[in-house]
Design goal:
The protein is α+β, with helices and mostly antiparallel strands and about 190 residues long. It has one domain: Roll (Pnp Oxidase, Chain A), CATH 2.30.110. About 30% of the residues lie in helices and about 40% in strands. The chain has 5 helices and 9 strands. It has helices at about 5-20, 60-70, 95-105, 110-115, 125-140, and strands spanning about 25-30, 35-45, 45-50, 50-55, 70-80, 85-95, 150-165, 175-180, 185-190. Strands 1, 2, 3, 4, 5, 6, 7, 8 and 9 form a 9-stranded antiparallel beta sheet that branches. Helix 4 crosses helix 5 (about 125-140).
């Protein structure tokens, strides 16, 4: 198989069948303007040849880092399958329509939490956040919860995708796909 997206689809389907928790969990690595890196877990909410999509507060730390350095790296680690997928590329905003549609699919409490949270900012006490959440419950009681203006999706458009498969005696298999214009070239890496 030489199409990295078809290979990802096959591996992802296996992960959804075998991983006990969050097969869509991926590590997202970003760097700030000075090159200091940070990493955190996010959830894959869409993928295809145009990229890999996650959603977040666009005023938090990851968003600030992506605004000054849009290069990002993603890592899926499916321990039960003894596989990893590494993705590197540029991040850009998902469309408002995509963000609205995904936000509408979230549970009401998750929607309210997006309004209540000032993601990545200092919090004096858990009670403060819980009070903000209660305020949002009251504000939107009996009605739909619209997407907050600071909340939306990002799409990481890959330049490189590496598929890592565990092998005996650490003789792992590493297949790497590199974007070449609109096409992809495939190669292998030493373990």
């Amino acid at each position: 198989m030489t199409d990295p997206f078809a290979l990802f689809d096959a591996w992802y389907a296996e992960a959804r069948a075998s991983e006990p928790n969050d097969p869509n969990a991926m590590a997202l690595a970003t760097a700030d303007a000075r090159g200091r890196s940070s990493v955190r877990m996010v959830l894959l909410k869409g993928h295809g040849p145009d990229g890999f999509v996650f959603y977040t507060n666009r005023e938090g730390r990851k968003a600030a880092e992506l605004s000054v350095n849009p290069q990002a790296a993603l890592l899926f680690h499916w321990k039960s399958l003894r596989r990893q997928v590494r993705i590197e590329g540029a991040a850009s905003f998902a469309t408002d329509a995509e963000s609205d549609a995904y936000f509408a699919s979230r549970s009401r409490d998750s929607q309210l939490g997006a309004w209540a949270s000032e993601q990545s900012r200092p919090l004096d006490a858990r009670a403060t956040f819980e009070a903000r959440f209660a305020q949002m419950q009251a504000r939107f009681e009996g009605g739909a919860v619209p997407r907050p203006p600071q909340w939306g999706g990002y799409r990481v458009t890959p330049d490189t995708i590496e598929f890592w498969q565990d092998r005996a005696f650490r003789l792992h298999e590493r297949r790497v796909f590199t974007r070449d214009g609109e096409a992809w070239t495939e190669g292998m890496l030493y373990p």
